[in-house]
């Protein structure tokens, strides 16, 4: 079962179980996917729809947005709103691949560098592209960039 089908099935289950918070988040996910499909069609993209990688990218973006919102709410003393954002994050993350821990991330970086024969900072773009292709949705590329840079500068 693909990601899209899983989201639709879980939406129906949440409706039947009357899980309002889960249902609300799943509807937000469905709306984000629909928006991206419409944008792809108006940009002259293919009519076949979004790939699993596209769906993963949408979900990753949604998680990042909610993390930023939760941080802002915490700084503003609105803990109940921050908790609601954290609950949405947990639901969205359940549809993403498992995140790599730091040791696994470092191992993936080392493997990509070795396979590409990267030797200097000039090769950083190639290494990052390779990591994105292999590990989309499994690592935070904002944190990975400095790790790759540090490794290539040695």
**What is the string of helix and strand elements?**
HHHHHHH
What sort of overall outline do the alpha carbons produce when their principal axes are compared?
globular
CATH homologous superfamily of the largest domain?
A: Uncharacterised protein YqeY/AIM41, N-terminal domain
Mean pLDDT: 89
Structural class: mainly alpha
Kindly report the CATH topology of the largest domain. Hypothetical Protein Yqey, Chain: A, domain1
Counting structural domains, the number is 2
CATH architecture of the largest domain: Orthogonal Bundle
Helix content: over 70%
What is the name of the CATH class of the largest domain? Mainly Alpha
Strand elements, count: 0
**CA(first)-CA(last) distance:** 44 Å
The Rg value, from CA coordinates, equals 18 Å
The helix tally amounts to 7
Share of β-strand residues: under 5%
Describe the biggest sheet? none
Low-confidence stretches: none
